[in-house]
Amino acid sequence: MHSEATIRLGSFALMLVVMGVTETVWPRRQLTTSKPRRWVSNLSISILSTIIARLALPLVPTGFALYCTQHGYGLFNLSSIPPVVAIITSVIFLDMVIYWQHVIFHRIPLLWRVHRMHHIDLDIDASTGIRFHPIEICLSLCLKLGTIFILGPPMLAVLIFEVLLNGCALFNHANVRIPITIDAAMRLLMVTPDMHRVHHSTDMREANMNFGFNFPWWDRIFGTYKAQPDKGHNGMTIGLNIFRTPRYGSILNLLRIPFL
């Protein structure tokens, strides 16, 4: 389990540094607010959310997957599916669950009040990918644990999914410029920054599109895909119209967002 934590944290830290450097060298958009201030706030809220989630639910998905395997809980642990098939199927299914979680957080008003903290960032870059309210992190963890209990995925599948989810969240929020032809090819297999940026538009018709984190297929299958923002990536406005002042970026105000 120690090596599992090292893999998750190591890959996360490496991806954060790589994306932070890349978007500084090849930015897609000109930032409108202070990047250091935003990174401090976003990293701080991420650390706080992680601590609260661990205290509230002292279970990690990979450890729980191992527990379910050892005790025969879950569909895959009750069948004779080949390990490779179980791993691939589990990663894909878990990604679909997170897609629908994201959709539901937009569709249900009470959950949207919690999730909107992620959307009030006035700029979007790699640090936005870790900016989630502690309540949302805890609810998401409960959903993942429940899915693991029902599905019974191999521990390796959950580890792969967790590494992918963290890495892709940093990548597809990054303010990095990718040539259009390369972006088009990448969209066949993964969510790109240009694809996900549409989701952070102040135009709610666009903000309610492109919910995927890892794989781009769910948005196309379920009719929530939009290729480009109407005003273009340089012309679109990021954030929410009701929270346009930088003061909402402080840690205390971020925590208050669901209750405002």
Automatic annotation (TrEMBL):
Entry superkingdom: Bacteria
Membrane-spanning residues: 6-27, 39-60, 80-100, 141-165
Principal location listed in the UniProt entry: membrane
Annotated compartments: Membrane
InterPro entries in the record: Fatty_acid_hydroxylase, Sterol_Desaturase_Related
Start and end residues of each Fatty acid hydroxylase domain: 90-224
Protein's UniProt keywords contain Secreted: no
UniProt KW keywords: Membrane, Transmembrane, Transmembrane helix
Keyword flag NADP: no
UniProt-recorded name of the protein: Sterol desaturase
Organism per entry: Pseudodesulfovibrio sediminis
